[in-house]
Amino acid sequence: MRRTRHTKGPNTRTAKGPLKTPARAGQNRKFAGKGHSTANGADFWNREYTEGEHFSLSDKPGSELVKFTRWFRGEQGHMDLSQMQVLDVGCGNGRNLIYLADQYGASGAGFDLSESAVASARASAEKLGISSSVRFYQHNLAEVIPESDQTYELILDMMVSHCLRSTERSRYKREVLRLLQPGGFMMIKTFLREGDQHAARMMRDHPGGEPNSYIHPMIGIYEYVTTEAAFREFWEDEFIIHLLHKSHGYQHWGGVPYKRRYMVAYLERKGR
Question: Tens of pLDDT along 97-134?
């Protein structure tokens, strides 16, 4: 299975396994992490960010983020993003947060479990001269995020939190509500269950022990595939869902193409 090539969209990525977690002030904070659904895969993703054997990992901003930025600045009337604090909960090589900082003057922090990805993000920010505006740390998304309450006005979750089990997703939601200011926004990209042939095969052959989930046979991590109804039920009590955009792509498994469905959501936290 290791040699199977998977095609990947411009912003499709998967959360990774546990590593050391520097705290916000630069302390050498550690976490155990081994009991979490994200416990496996660190070595795999470190190799991907250095060798790129299975996935195409672009350094350009995700097309979904560019579209969201247009919507956010236009329909929502946020023309000046220079004062905005942004949190990218699975930043990878930092491309999305760096784009917002470089193009619009935003600032904030990115967290990822890949040591190679974080190193790449820091190097890119340094090269562009924006390292004072954006910070990048290693962190396990299943753990408490080491940031202060209501620090952020925008949170990016682009193909990350689907690696959390049910109890971890509930804890993650509480973290989002703690960190995001009332009236703040969140952009989420995730797998969509309806019409996803590849997910159906994976759940049949590699069940994850919870509904709509599987254990990825190549990486060894848990992945959850939401339905639209489940997504709405999970978020809509605390958030206004402004947009749900559905798309699809294909992954090849054993030489056979399987359709993958994705959903991008624009959320606004209720209250001011």
Answer: 999 999 999 999 999 988 888 999 999 999 999 999 99
- The residues with which 239 forms a beta bridge, in sequence order, are 269
Question: What are 190's two structure tokens?
Answer: 């995730």
Let me know: does 195 contact 250? Beta carbons within 8 Å. Answer: no
Tokens of 88: 């990218």
pLDDT at 81 > cutoff 90 = no
Total Cβ atoms within 10 A of residue 2: 8
Instruction: Please classify residue 97 by burial: count the beta carbons closer than 10 Å to its beta carbon, then call 0-12 exposed, 13-18 middle and 19+ buried.
Output: buried
In whole angstroms, give the CA distance from residue 270 to residue 23: 29
